[in-house]
């Protein structure tokens, strides 16, 4: 008898495993990515929208999108002045199939030197790895869109709508956009962030606290992400070793070894534990590393607005002194102040909801991860108990 | 080109594995996991299971994992008790049985609760010898022994007969190697180990006794045993390997975990070595073995350089060369030897491969250990920075969970190594010793061949003399022939004896191996089980913390 764990492939459950809050609770605009195709380097996502909003042409539709389209959308939003006071949802990272692709090459090269079983097994593992990377990248692209759709301002964004609806290739638009903005904002020296933010003379206690917290937290969460990745890699290595051990055993003539066959399955369980830990905890940390950066970007924009305001004050003083262009300077100052106030106001709101969002996300993922770990460990327990019993009774 | 379409609904590429009623953990099955007792009971449970023995004698185990009797395993350190790597300078070896206190217990008997070795004391060798000698004597009386391949008039015993001889009266003899102590300083320092014996055998002076021995004493014992018994075709258990690097660290006085690990590794290896020696019925009878166990002071063993790892390996590798040179098939039973040797060689390769894989496992697990510890610290730091108090607390708890996991990984690595890796390493060397024993038989066969050819030459010489009519040299020739005839019959007897011994040894070895492997695998799986139990507990303790985040 071989004990094998049961695998849940419930679509509903899977889709709700986002690192953020359940973002699809507003039925007026529901977005998901039900499908994805991987062809060599390119991934094609199927973005599916269901909406009751009149601004859209149809109530339900799907379009194919590439990763670069998502980046385009993100960049246009970042570069929109009106959104300066919001935390822009971080862009999804590029799909990274490098790991499984390398393995696939190795598999192809080593095919002749492997037994049929070994080859089939490796192929199976490879497919599982591909699937895991797939899931991750789909998840992260989906969450990006859902963050936009659940935000009162972003969901109305024209480019967002185009992204969801436009049934032609977006690459033309992408090129135009690049020419228009030239990646202007992105090419700004990011290291100036830290200096500028920490240099701001903060009157507002809320922002003072936030600044200190975010600067410290971002360093630590980045570190935590790297170390979590290292840990889950080690875990996968251990699982691989079990695979090699059971592989070596399969070469024996006498193969009536339930105990060690179960080692195979144990390896799968270990692998899954590592992947789940990876998916839950590591992805959570990764995501919030990026989100923290987005929050910091908000602080940066506000700090710049404050700097602008201070400069406008100085300019006004100078104008008054000289008696020239005073009205213009006054107008400028007024606008700078307005901008700064607007940023501060919406910034406060955004950062407050960001806090709540982060706590909820951590809670959700920690709970789910813990439940999965318990499930897998219990599974291992029953597998092992079964094997031990069989061995002892022989 | 790899093309794959991910369909997340029904047609997902990942197959859903079938659910076996007993093992499925899905919510729908509604199965409650078996309740696990708390730590103490659990260990007791494990112990009793280990001590169960199945007295059923099956036929020889073909693959390495089936076995007849399950012998209790010798005391090795349990993963969760005691601290092998404690840096206090005292090397503590803890026992699986929670009742013992390990080394520092005054009750020596406690050390042996798990270390039973069951012996058979029937004089199988001598009995066998008698039977063989009988018919051979009659064969010797014929004037002509055909020059062609010798067909033994004595059929070596059938498998069943040989096995029956094995089980006989059983006496107890338990051995433990404990209390490693460093004697002396600097480069002349050495480790001294306590060898304790507990026995009911009458040939020993006492029932319980102990002596102190050093590593070279063990090597010396091997040399003595080997000199005497390997010629007979016995499988001599090889001693643990020398290690200049390992010992230098210890001598120099580096009191770190790697030295402690080295000493523990050696201690355990010496213990296993002795246990295998006394498990061998003929070796146990050897006075040198008895002396080793009993005598207070042993003369210093010299010339143990030859027994360094590579030296031993060279000796063993010559075995296969010798066998390959065998061109003449001796008789039908020779097929048995040929195929058996091939089996042995294949198995050795397999075990080498397995050992390499397990080695890799040990290393990766140690890595995982380190990475988990590092991760635990950063999570703690993240928790301390976190502004939300409930989340902050949960993160510190998570850091603690990861810390516990690091300990679990550490213990598991220990089990990986001492239960699995060392077993495999031992058997790779033991299989080498088995090959040696085949070589012995070959040597005896070659000697017989040479004697037969010399006899033939002498006969031809006699015939020539008869024909040349030189009576004065005839007597010499006849004497020569007589001399060589008796040599040939002696060597024939030797060869039969060796053949019989080797066969028996191999059978005994296979049985031992099957038993050994089964025990160790069970023990290993139990260690994994233990780890998983603890994991469940750790995470279950954390869950409410995670849920408490608000």
Strand content of chain B: 5-15%
Number of helices of chain B: 12
Low-confidence spans of chain B: 1-169
Beta percentage of chain A is 5-15%
User: Mean pLDDT score of chain A, rounded?
Assistant: 80
InterPro entries (chain B): AH/BAR_dom_sf, PX_dom, PX_dom_sf, Sorting_nexin_N, Vps5_C
GO cellular component, one term (chain B): cytosol
Subcellular location (chain B): Cell projection, Lamellipodium; Early endosome membrane; Golgi apparatus, trans-Golgi network membrane
Keywords (chain B): Acetylation, Cell projection, Coiled coil, Endosome, Golgi apparatus, Lipid-binding, Membrane, Phosphoprotein, Protein transport, Transport
Question: Which features does this protein show?
Answer:
heterodimer, A: 394 residues, mainly alpha, 3-stranded antiparallel sheet, 69% helix, 7% strand, elongated, disordered N terminus, B: 550 residues, alpha+beta, 4-stranded antiparallel sheet, 12 helices, SNX5/SNX6/SNX32 (chain A), protein transport (chain A), PX_dom_sf (chain A), phosphatidylinositol binding (chain A)
Structure description:
Helices cover 69% and strands 7% of the residues of chain A. Chain A has helices at residues 11-15, 67-78, 98-110, 116-149, 158-165, 171-181, 191-199, 205-250, 258-322, 326-393; strands at 29-39, 42-51, 60-66. Chain A has a three-stranded antiparallel sheet with strand order 1-2-3. In chain A, a hairpin with an 8-residue loop joins strand 2 (42-51) and strand 3 (60-66). Mean pLDDT of chain A is 80; it is low at 1-21. Chain B has helices at 39-51, 124-140, 159-166, 215-229, 244-252, 257-279, 281-285, 287-294, 309-324, 332-385, 389-468, 471-547, and strands spanning 3-7, 118-120, 170-183, 190-199, 208-214. In chain B, strand 4 (190-199) and strand 5 (208-214) form a beta hairpin. The two termini of chain B are 48 Å apart. Strand 1 (29-39) of chain A pairs antiparallel with strand 1 (3-7) of chain B.
């Amino acid at each position: 008898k071989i004990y094998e764990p049961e695998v849940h492939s419930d679509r509903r459950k899977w889709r709700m495993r986002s690192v953020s809050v359940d973002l699809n609770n507003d039925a007026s605009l529901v977005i998901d990515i039900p499908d994805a195709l991987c062809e060599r380097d390119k991934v094609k996502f199927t973005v599916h929208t269901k909406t009751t909003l009149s601004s859209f042409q149809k109530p339900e539709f799907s379009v194919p999108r590439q990763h670069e389209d998502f980046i385009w959308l993100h960049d246009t939003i970042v570069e929109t002045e009106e959104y300066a006071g919001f935390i822009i949802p971080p862009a999804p990272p590029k799909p990274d199939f490098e790991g499984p692709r390398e393995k696939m090459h190795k598999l192809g090269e080593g095919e002749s030197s492997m037994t049929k079983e070994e080859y089939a097994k490796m192929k199976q593992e490879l497919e599982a790895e591909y699937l895991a990377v797939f899931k991750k990248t789909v998840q992260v692209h989906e969450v990006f869109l859902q963050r936009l759709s659940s935000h009162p301002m972003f969901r109305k964004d024209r480019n967002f709508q185009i992204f969801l609806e436009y049934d032609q290739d977006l690459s033309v638009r992408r090129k135009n956009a690049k020419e228009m903005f030239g990646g202007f904002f992105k090419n700004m020296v990011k290291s100036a962030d830290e200096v500028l933010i920490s240099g701001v003379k903060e009157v507002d206690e809320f922002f003072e606290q936030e600044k200190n917290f975010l600067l410290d937290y971002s360093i630590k969460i980045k570190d935590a992400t790297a170390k979590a990745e290292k840990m889950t890699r080690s875990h996968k290595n251990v699982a691989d070793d079990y695979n090699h051990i059971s592989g070596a055993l399969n070469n024996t003539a006498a193969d009536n070894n339930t105990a060690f066959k179960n080692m195979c399955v144990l390896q799968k369980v270990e692998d899954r534990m590592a992947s789940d830990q990876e998916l839950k905890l590591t992805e959570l940390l990764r995501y919030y590393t990026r989100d923290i950066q987005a929050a910091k970007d908000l602080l940066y924009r506000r700090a710049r607005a404050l700097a602008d305001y201070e400069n406008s004050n100085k300019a006004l003083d100078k104008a008054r002194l000289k008696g020239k262009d005073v009205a213009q300077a006054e107008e400028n100052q007024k606008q700078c102040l307005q901008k700064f106030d607007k940023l501060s106001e919406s910034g406060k709101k955004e950062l407050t909801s960001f806090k709540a969002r982060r706590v909820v996300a951590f809670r959700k993922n920690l709970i789910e991860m813990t439940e999965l770990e318990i499930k897998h460990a219990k599974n291992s327990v029953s597998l092992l108990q079964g094997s031990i019993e069989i061995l002892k009774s022989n | 080109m790899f093309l794959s379409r991910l369909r997340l609904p029904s047609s997902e590429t990942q197959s859903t594995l079938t659910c076996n009623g007993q093992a499925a953990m899905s919510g729908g099955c509604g199965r409650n996991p078996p309740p696990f007792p708390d730590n103490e009971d659990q260990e007791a449970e494990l112990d009793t299971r280990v001590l169960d023995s199945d007295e059923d004698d099956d036929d020889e185990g073909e693959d390495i994992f089936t076995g007849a009797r399950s012998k209790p395993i010798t005391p090795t350190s349990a993963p969760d008790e005691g601290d092998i790597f404690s840096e206090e300078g005292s090397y503590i070896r803890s026992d699986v049985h929670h009742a013992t206190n390990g080394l520092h217990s005054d009750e020596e008997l406690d050390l042996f609760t798990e270390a039973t070795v069951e012996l058979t004391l029937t004089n199988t060798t001598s009995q066998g010898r008698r039977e063989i000698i009988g018919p051979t004597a009659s064969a010797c009386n014929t004037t002509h022994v055909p020059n062609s391949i010798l067909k033994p008039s004595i059929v070596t015993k059938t498998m069943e007969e040989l096995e029956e001889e094995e089980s006989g009266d059983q006496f107890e003899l338990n051995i433990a190697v404990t209390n490693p102590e460093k004697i002396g300083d600097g480069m002349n320092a050495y480790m001294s180990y306590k060898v304790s014996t507990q026995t009911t055998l009458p040939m020993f002076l006492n029932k319980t006794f102990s002596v102190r021995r050093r590593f070279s004493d063990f090597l010396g014992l091997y040399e003595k045993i080997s000199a005497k018994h390997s010629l007979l075709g016995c499988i001599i258990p090889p001693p643990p390997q020398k290690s200049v690097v390992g010992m230098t660290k210890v001598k120099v006085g580096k009191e770190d975990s790697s030295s402690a690990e080295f000493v523990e590794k050696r201690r355990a290896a010496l213990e296993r070595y002795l246990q295998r020696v006394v498990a061998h019925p003929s070796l146990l009878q050897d006075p040198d073995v008895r002396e080793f166990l009993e005598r207070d002071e042993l003369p210093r063993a010299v010339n143990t350089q030859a027994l360094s790892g590579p030296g031993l390996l060279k000796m063993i590798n010559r075995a296969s060369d010798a066998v390959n040179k065998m061109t003449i098939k001796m008789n039908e039973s020779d097929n048995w030897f040929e195929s058996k040797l091939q089996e042995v060689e294949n198995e050795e390769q397999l075990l080498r491969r397995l050992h390499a894989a397990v080695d890799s496992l040990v290393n990766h697990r140690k890595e995982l250990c380190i990475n988990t510890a590092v991760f635990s610290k950063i999570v703690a730091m993240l928790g301390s920075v976190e502004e939300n108090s409930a989340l902050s607390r949960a993160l510190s708890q998570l850091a603690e969970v990861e810390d516990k996991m690091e300990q679990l990984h550490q213990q598991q690595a220990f089990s990986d190594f001492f239960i699995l890796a060392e077993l495999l390493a031992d058997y790779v060397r033991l299989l080498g010793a088995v090959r040696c024993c085949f070589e012995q038989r070959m040597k005896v066969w070659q000697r017989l061949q040479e004697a037969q050819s010399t006899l033939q030459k002498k006969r031809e010489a006699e015939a020539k003399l008869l024909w040349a009519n030189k009576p004065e040299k005839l007597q010499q020739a006849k004497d020569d022939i007589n001399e060589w005839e008796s040599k040939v019959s002696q060597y024939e007897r030797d060869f039969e004896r060796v053949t019989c011994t080797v066969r028996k040894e191999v059978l005994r070895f296979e049985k031992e191996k099957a038993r050994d492997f089964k025990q160790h695998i069970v023990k290993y799986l139990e260690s994994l089980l233990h780890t998983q139990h603890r994991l469940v507990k750790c995470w279950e303790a954390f869950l409410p913390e995670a849920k408490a985040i608000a």
